[in-house]
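Tokens in:
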């Protein structure tokens, strides 16, 4: 266990300070620094599914708000998951299977990506893998012989621990409840006895009941996921490649070994096998979420990150079967174990360019630090600023120094005080009056909005879009991935006024060369 944990820690800490946060991380960063009553107020309107995580990060960032500390819990969660995968492989097969599986998890680019993400997914993966290990232990104890009824017999303590860990994991992210289906598949493959099914049902039933309030609140907030679409077979193929290995050599080798690992899917009655745990864990949650998303889109690969733990277990189980065949040639077990470690190192070397690229800010969907640096160069104290849509205000909330002294034209009440992610904005009439008094305004926007043929759906957002396009002319701009900072000047004054005026006291600009 120690070696995979150490490897995952090293890879997780490598490049952890990218020098910038992307939008989802920025939400964690600014929400976690609010007071507990302000976080509680926020959860009534949005992000209830992340409530427990925000409270945890509130305690963490109280030590020192910064990017490294923001991501450190995820690094620890990923390291714990690698160790737990190793523990599962050791318990279900033998120590070398655990070693190989834990190392494979640690060097998988998908695991490394979310180990450096300031969101809950790596912690959810750790909780799910821990719950799976407790399920294996409880099922083994429950199958050993008769015990008292209820949660007190047949491995009662393990079932209590299983229910507690599963419950906390589901409260970190409610879609972890799909793990229940994977565990049902494991018990079915093991042909578990009735007593085990009853104890498991009591534990999971209690978890589901405690989760109902969050499900009710988050369902009312489902508009947050309106951007999602139905997953396709291409999404399934992408997830499979992310689980097994994104590079062709690792992918095909991993698939072949996983197929070999499936040769011992079920053992004696009541026996939980490595493949019997790994296959449902890797397959059932993603498939269930993709099928449900055909009716109500919910699927994003990170929501089922915890299922990744099943893939290296299955690959390691297959490698062990191959090693068993080779072992008949009188090759010693330590040599075989070391050969497997070398094979994992080769997989790591093959995927190293991907791991290195993943640690660059450009590899994330956006980079709010880059946007804030551009804003600091362009904006002056007193400049009016309009955020389009209001979520673009996240840059100013995360990196406020770049916007210090500017005037937020549309803001009515700040984000912490209003119990929202990005603050509340004035109504259309007030916004129209404020814009009418401006000759120039800087717009910080998502490119898809300002470059669209028509405005967004919200009445206030549509008014921003319409007034800008009807009464102002676009001028100088800075583009940072999907964000743009653009100066708009009233059309009646636009001639010769589309550039940023020099700062007070700066020398006059040189004359422009004439056209040839």
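Residues out:
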């Amino acid at each position: 266990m120690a070696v995979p944990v150490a490897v995952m820690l090293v890879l997780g800490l490598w490049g952890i300070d990218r020098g910038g946060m992307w939008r989802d991380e920025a939400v964690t960063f600014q929400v976690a620094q609010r007071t507990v009553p302000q976080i509680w107020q926020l959860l009534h309107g949005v992000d209830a599914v992340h409530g427990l995580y925000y409270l945890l990060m509130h305690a963490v960032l109280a030590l020192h708000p910064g990017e490294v500390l923001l991501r450190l819990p995820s690094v620890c969660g990923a390291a714990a998951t690698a160790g737990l995968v190793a523990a599962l492989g050791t318990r279900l097969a033998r120590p070398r299977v655990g070693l190989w599986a834990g190392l494979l998890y640690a060097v998988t680019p998908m695991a490394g990506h979310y180990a450096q993400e300031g969101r809950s997914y790596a912690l959810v993966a750790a909780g799910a893998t821990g719950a799976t290990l407790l399920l294996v232990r409880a099922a083994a104890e429950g199958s050993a012989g008769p015990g008292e009824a209820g949660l007190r017999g047949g491995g009662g303590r393990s079932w209590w621990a299983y229910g507690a860990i599963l419950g906390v994991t589901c409260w970190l992210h409610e879609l972890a409840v799909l793990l229940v289906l994977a565990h049902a598949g494991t018990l079915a493959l093991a042909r578990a006895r009735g007593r085990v099914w009853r104890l498991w049902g009591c534990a999971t039933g209690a978890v589901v009941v405690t989760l109902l309030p969050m499900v009710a609140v988050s369902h009312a907030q489902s508009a947050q996921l309106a951007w999602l679409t139905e997953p396709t077979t291409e999404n399934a193929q992408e997830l499979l490649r992310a689980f097994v290995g994104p590079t062709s050599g690792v992918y095909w080798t991993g698939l072949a070994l996983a197929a070999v690992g499936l040769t011992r899917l079920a053992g004696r009655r009541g026996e939980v096998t490595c493949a019997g745990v790994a296959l449902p864990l890797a397959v059932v949650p993603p498939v269930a979420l993709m099928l449900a998303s055909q009716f109500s889109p919910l699927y994003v690969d990170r929501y089922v990150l915890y299922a990744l733990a099943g893939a290296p277990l299955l690959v390691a189980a297959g490698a062990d079967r191959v090693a068993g065949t080779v072992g008949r040639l009188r090759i010693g077990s330590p040599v075989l174990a070391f050969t497997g470690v070398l094979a994992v190192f080769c997989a790591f070397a093959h995927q190293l360019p991907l791991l290195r690229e993943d640690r660059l800010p450009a590899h994330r969907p956006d980079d709010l630090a880059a946007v804030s640096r551009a804003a600091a160069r362009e904006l002056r104290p007193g400049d009016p600023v309009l955020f389009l849509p209001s979520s673009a205000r996240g840059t100013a909330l995360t990196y406020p120094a770049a916007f210090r002294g500017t005037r937020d034209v549309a803001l009515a009440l700040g984000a912490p005080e209003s119990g929202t992610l990005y603050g509340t904005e004035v109504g259309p009439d007030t916004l129209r009056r404020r814009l009418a008094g401006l000759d120039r305004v800087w717009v910080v926007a998502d490119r898809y909005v300002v470059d669209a043929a028509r405005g967004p759906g919200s009445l206030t957002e549509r008014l921003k879009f319409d007034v800008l396009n009807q009464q102002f002319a676009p001028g100088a701009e800075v583009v940072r991935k999907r964000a743009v900072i653009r100066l708009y000047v009233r059309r009646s004054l636009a001639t010769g006024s589309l550039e940023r005026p020099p700062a007070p006291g700066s020398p006059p600009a040189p004359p422009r060369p004439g056209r040839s």
